[in-house]
Write a structure and sequence with these properties.
The protein has about 300 residues and is of the alpha/beta class. The protein is built from eight helices and 15 strands.
């Protein structure tokens, strides 16, 4: 049962596997309506963060558009929930010690606004450019002023064009991955891990055991394994991380990386060199690569 104020604006499923055509080595432009999702989940400003977390977790989505009077007034994301929890907002109401709880805090207190929009007829590269410029991972898509869909960085990588053969060396993951690899020990509590992620402004950390990579813990893990299930954050992250760790070697092309991420349904891909972690490639990094690709 979806709480009052939460709803789905549309229920049309599109195939997120738009074909990519090449002509004389030049990448053809894709339109947003070829890969965007028309299934939009919304919430009201008056709903609680707990209700937002539950809906995102149940639907396995990373954001909700915030609507008031049939108008999009903001957006709330997994990152917003991570920041809230890392700042001391508890999962349950502490009737003795007091303090804030996600069951009390309202969406309007943490949502981002205004909603960044793009016209339906715009090329995919324009969406990529706006995401990089605004440092965001999703855009609302409008047609004649009406909201008709949403496009995310993950949607884009499922249709990432392959670079022309003579350009591949310039589109290796080396140039776009984050070279800062944030690691935490498997015995660290999830509560502390959330604080590390928020402080470092990263959406994931590599979990190590006895100095060796064991798995990865992401914003999505925090949402689906803890916030939605009312599970205490006083738990070792080693028991909650996604494992085994899926990696790729340095030097591969972004198109190959996109295929690996799409196949495994992941948004972050650790990169290795000589069996050592040297970086992490995210869906947003791939969007930046696409924004720089020749038209």
């Amino acid at each position: 049962m979806i709480p009052e104020g939460l709803n789905k604006k549309a229920s049309i499923n599109l195939e997120n596997n738009a074909s990519v055509q090449h002509e004389h080595g030049i990448l053809q432009s894709l339109n947003l309506d070829e890969i965007m999702s028309r299934e939009i989940f919304t919430i009201s400003p008056e709903n609680t963060l707990y209700e937002a977390a539950r809906l995102m977790g149940e639907r396995l989505i990373g954001s909700l558009l915030v609507f008031k009077y049939e108008t999009p007034v903001g957006i709330i994301t997994e990152r917003d929930l991570l920041n809230v929890v890392s700042n001391g907002v508890k999962l349950e109401k502490d009737w003795i010690g007091g303090g804030k709880s996600i069951r009390d805090e309202k969406v309007e207190k943490v949502m981002s606004f205004p909603v960044i929009k793009i016209c339906l007829g715009s090329p995919l590269k324009e969406a990529a450019r706006i995401m990089i410029e605004k440092r965001i991972r999703r855009l609302a898509v409008c047609d004649s002023g009406k909201l008709v869909g949403i496009i995310t960085a993950s949607d884009m990588i499922r249709s990432l064009p392959e670079a022309p053969e003579n350009m591949k060396v310039w589109f290796q993951v080396d140039y776009f991955m984050a070279k800062q690899v944030v690691t935490v020990d498997a015995e660290m509590l999830v509560e502390a891990v959330a604080e590390v992620m928020a402080e470092k402004r990263v959406g994931s950390v590599i979990v190590t055991s006895q100095g060796k990579p064991k798995g990865i813990f992401t914003e999505r893990d925090l949402l689906t394994k803890f916030l939605v299930k009312d599970r205490s954050l006083i738990a070792e992250v080693g028991n909650a991380c996604s494992s085994p760790l899926i990696t790729a070697p340095i030097g591969i092309c972004i198109h190959e990386a996109a295929e690996i991420m799409t196949k495994n349904r992941i948004k972050r891909l650790p990169i290795t060199m000589n069996k050592q972690l040297v970086g992490v490639l995210s869906a947003r990094d791939l969007v930046e690569a696409y924004a720089r690709a020749p038209s």
